[in-house]
Amino acid sequence: MTSAFSSSEAAAIERQVDLTDSNQPACVDIRLNDFWGEAQLAECAQWIREQNFKKVCLQFPDILLPFSTEISEQLGEVASAVNTGVYILGDTSYGSCCADEIAASHVGADAIIHFGHACLSRAVRLPIKYVFIRGQMSVDRFVHAMREEFTDRNIDLGIFYDVSLAHATREIKDQLENDFPNISFGQLAMSGEQPDLLCWKLNGRTYENSVCVFVGGDNKSFFHTSNGIKARQWFRYDPESDALTQDSPLDSKWLRRRLYYVEKCKDASSLGIVVATLTANGYLDVVNRVQKMAKARGIRTYIISVGKINPAKLANFVEIDCFVLIGCPENDLFTSRDFFKPLVSVFECELAFNPAWKNQLPDSYSTDFSDLLPNGRLYKDFLAESVDNTETDISLVTGKVRSVNRVETEMTNGGECQVVQLRGKNEVAQVSSGDVLQNRTWQGLEQNLGRDAPAVVEEGRSGIPIKYQNDNLE
């Protein structure tokens, strides 16, 4: 008789694995020559020789892993001439678009060659070489669409593009510069360069009075670029449909949902700071800033690092009311509805906790935490003293009165530190992260030292969890 709590031992061996990436259906038909050839091989080999690297990691997203062995063998033959070792990085620590310096450090790598789509987050430890997938587009049809749409040839135009279409910018520029004298092209800030905004080098150009066009799909790159760069009007050209249309990613339905999460963040009494990057420049500064804002409002904070984020991992922290994600801006976690508790960006946390944003609706949106750091485009100074003067308001979610619970730290005569929370006049409450256990029916394993009889030593189980050797199941 088969147990109702276990499955057949053959199921684990016969189980099929789906290798298709459902999030990127268009990438299934990618071929090797779409991103790799003799030119890329020579360019990467020259880069290794000039920098005299001894260990180089090749980072591939899941969809490009079938080509990793062939590329590593070709590059390894060239690199072996200068005594350089080549390693393949498959499963990344956080996201495939970010350079995984953490995994590369396990082998003591000197550099990383990153394949596929990249967010171009500035690395802080290792030099990075990018090899993009060369997307397909008809330059002639794009130029024709631009001439048909913009009849005023003296219009100020800004052209931005997906990284997969960077190879076509030179040809586009040659054909459009004669028609539009006031046209400019965004330049990608590659590894080692300091971007002016997001991943772009703007070279002092502003686009507030310009019409901007993004060449690429309706993806995260378009979302961040169109929200980060303030323009008079935004258009998007889709290479698949050859359509040039006016577009804006900030629709009212999406924005209402994000403002709802801002209200949930204001109601939170505990905040989980989810660190989803260990390489992006400035992530520690953002962690300290979020902690400072939360402490001024009497909110407990927990720093969490669990690798790749998914709803199941964060659901384990039931005592946390809201999570703040510090990671790559080009991820789809902010739009997911599967999380048990709200997951907000650093910008949304600023809207909730920083009094400088009170009664202000931003004219743009950002999931890039570097925008909230000093010299960032959305930075506003935070003063802990201004929180004390914050007026009591009403939660738009619960309908309850919401007030600031200021936290103070005092030293006792014995040198011990005590944290107290001032809730009102003559009301003092001790702050402890263990308070959340009081309302739980199960509070963990108890030792009961000296109260339980010693257990008898017995032989334990052996085998695999799906069927132990001492399980007599018929």
What's the topology here?
Blueprint: H1 11-14, H2 38-51, E1 55-59, H3 68-79, E2 85-89, H4 101-105, E3 111-115, E4 128-131, H5 139-149, E5 157-161, H6 169-176, E6 183-185, E7 187-188, E8 200-201, E9 211-215, H7 220-228, E10 233-238, E11 243-246, H8 252-267, E12 270-275, H9 283-296, E13 300-304, H10 311-314, E14 322-326, E15 343-344, H11 346-353, H12 384-388, E16 393-394, E17 401-402, E18 406-411, E19 417-424, E20 427-430, E21 463-464, E22 467-468
Helix pairs in contact: 2-3, 5-6, 8-11, 9-11
Strand order of the largest sheet: 6-5-9-10-11
Low-confidence stretches: 1-7, 17-27
Tell me the major beta sheet: 5 strands, mixed
Count of distinct strands: 22
Helical segment count: 12
Helical fraction equals 10-25%
Identify the notable features of this structure and list them briefly.
474 residues; alpha/beta; five-stranded mixed sheet; four-stranded parallel sheet; 12 helices; single chain
Would you write up a description of this structure?
There is one protein chain. Helix 7 links the parallel strand 9 and strand 10 (233-238). With 474 residues, this protein is an alpha/beta fold. It has helices spanning 11-14, 38-51, 68-79, 101-105, 139-149, 169-176, 220-228, 252-267, 283-296, 311-314, 346-353, 384-388, and strands at residues 55-59, 85-89, 111-115, 128-131, 157-161, 183-185, 187-188, 200-201, 211-215, 233-238, 243-246, 270-275, 300-304, 322-326, 343-344, 393-394, 401-402, 406-411, 417-424, 427-430, 463-464, 467-468. The model is unreliable at 1-7 and 17-27 (pLDDT under 50). Helices cover 23% and strands 19% of the residues. It has a five-stranded mixed sheet, with helices on both faces. It has a four-stranded parallel sheet with strand order 2-1-3-4. The chain has a four-stranded parallel sheet with strand order 13-12-14-15.
